[in-house]
Design goal:
By secondary structure, the protein is mainly α. The chain contains 16 helices and no strands. Helix 4 runs antiparallel to helix 5. The longest helix is centred in the last third of the chain and has 22 residues. The radius of gyration is 20 Å and the shape is globular.
């Protein structure tokens, strides 16, 4: 069994006991060989990985209103204090802060929540609201860019996607803005964040190369041009292209509700086979955590 399949198995059994021996047998390896491969693949021990995934899953539950003790017991901790100690050691803050943090996010329409989370915008946000969120995110994450240039690329993106709609009925440019917000939080540089606003303009057939060359800074145009390659092999693509594609996949997986079940499963399978290994290779931990959970959810 491939290592990503083992990780998917772990994800769907986080509320059940698991041992190294059990997982090694499932993978078809000796325990020693399995543990060595697992450490090479994830850069952490098997039990540490499982503990971290359980803590993240518990964090999501608590943020949605589940009592801390109920989440702790569900994922294998026997007491509130033991769970809180593990949680604080992993994330640097107490689980009791999660509800407060989530309430603040809801009140202010977004923002950062460290410890395994990337900002998620609300469905129905307008392009104007998302652009303001992008500017805040870039400031918060130290992405330096002239506001005039940011406005120029944003306006170009709006023109390029004008009239295009997502399956949800939202303006298509909102997808591109979400991609740029995710890129900002991933630590991408300014040119990559700007390129995110044109992440799939070529694929949608709504951008002419000559116009883009005139409207975009040279480095941004280079990245956008690289995104137009047909039948792209992401494993050998430039890092900037991989970052954009990972951010785009995360937003697509977050908004997958509006496509049919067969397409959902196909997207989930692609995420497991192509995008999770790339996220792991690039060590984007927060993105990896969420992509993994979404892929497992929609592949069932």
């Amino acid at each position: 069994m491939a290592m990503e399949q083992i990780l998917a198995y772990i994800e769907t059994h986080l509320d059940e006991p698991m041992t190294n021996r059990q997982l090694a047998r499932l993978a078809g390896y000796s325990e020693y060989h399995f543990l060595r491969l697992f450490k090479e693949y994830t850069n952490m021990t098997c039990m540490h990985y499982i503990s971290k995934r359980r803590l993240i899953r518990a964090a999501w539950d608590i943020a949605e209103g589940v009592r801390i003790i109920d989440a702790a017991i569900r994922y294998g901790w026997q007491s509130h204090s033991a769970f809180s100690k593990s949680f604080k050691r992993e994330f640097g803050f107490s689980p009791s802060l999660l509800r407060t943090m989530r309430m603040e996010l809801d009140c202010f329409g977004g923002g950062r929540m460290d410890g395994g989370f990337i900002t998620q915008t609300k469905v129905g946000e307008t392009k104007e609201q998302l652009f303001e969120m992008l500017k805040r995110s870039m400031r918060d994450n130290g992405v330096e860019i002239q506001e005039e240039l940011l406005e120029q690329v944003y306006q170009f993106s709006c023109r390029v996607y004008a009239g295009k709609k997502r399956y949800s009925g939202e303006e298509y440019v909102t997808h591109a803005l979400n991609v740029s917000i995710i890129l900002s939080e991933m630590g991408a540089d300014a040119n990559v964040v700007l390129a995110g606003m044109l992440c799939d303009a070529h694929a949608k057939g709504c951008m002419r190369a000559e116009e883009a060359r005139k409207q975009l800074p040279a480095e941004v145009f280079r990245i956008v041009s690289d995104l137009t390659v047909e039948k792209m092999d992401l494993s050998s693509s430039p890092e900037e292209v991989v970052q954009v594609k990972l951010a785009e996949r995360l937003h697509n997986m977050r908004t997958i509700d509006h496509i049919d079940e067969a397409k959902k499963r196909k997207k989930a399978e692609e995420t497991v086979e192509i995008f999770l290994p790339l996220a792991r290779k690039m060590n984007h931990v927060k993105l990896l955590d969420e992509l993994h959970a979404l892929a497992v959810r929609w592949s069932r």
